[in-house]
């Protein structure tokens, strides 16, 4: 016996992603030109970061399109995990940029090159202005999926990177402190790496089908066992197919007579109500198999004596 719910419908965030992608692409070209003209590490780091943003937003757009495709008999969940894969790829790109920035920043601290501060300042302001617009566009939908969260974090990190470029430009222009450039690169790296690692962990948790955060399966089992007629719960599994789509499955063992006196249907209804009422995570798709004690014992015998 099963208890199911319609699969959650993902929101369509493509319009916002297109605006952010367009802005980011224009700034990427401007900053690439600026990097060639100035030779700045901070600007080079921010440009590389911007390149990952453009790539990440492109992947986010593809994922946002794929997850809207309906499920089929061959793809029962559709492409709901495309957004998780895209988020993982974006986070991996961010991590590579962050590590490179850290290594190059340390190297340039000992041998800072000449960097024109005024040009650096101009390109930093251009990048920051575009990033602020992109942040405003993506902010309202940043929690709708891992994909949108990754896109928002990339743009936010880029804005912080642009602030670092601006500060470095001001310091070099006013004081001639050339180490401000590699220091800004190191600050940008420090901002990128922790967020990238966190997003990678969250994406891997979904792909590895770990229990969704906030859902304690031991607590679920304890609550279900307190229901009348339930004598055992086994094969309890929970995972996250995609953002906003947690699943829960389990076998509920009841007394044999429950299948003759009608209590089996009541138990199924009570289990559904219990799962819906006691836990913070809203279970989008739950499936429970109701089985008798004799079936459970026969399954145990089969495992013991193959």
UniProtKB/TrEMBL annotation:
GO molecular function annotation: zinc ion transmembrane transporter activity
Gene3D superfamilies: Cation efflux protein transmembrane domain (1.20.1510.10)
Pfam families per the UniProt record, alphabetical: Cation_efflux
Keyword Membrane attached: yes
Domain Cation efflux protein transmembrane per the UniProt entry, residue ranges: 17-208
Keyword annotations of the record: Membrane, Transmembrane, Transmembrane helix
Highest taxon listed in the record's lineage: Bacteria
GO cellular component terms, A-Z: plasma membrane
InterPro entries per record: Cation_efflux, Cation_efflux_CTD_sf, Cation_efflux_TM, Cation_efflux_TMD_sf, CDF/SLC30A
Name the record gives this protein: Cation diffusion facilitator family transporter
Organism of origin: Candidatus Microbacterium stercoravium
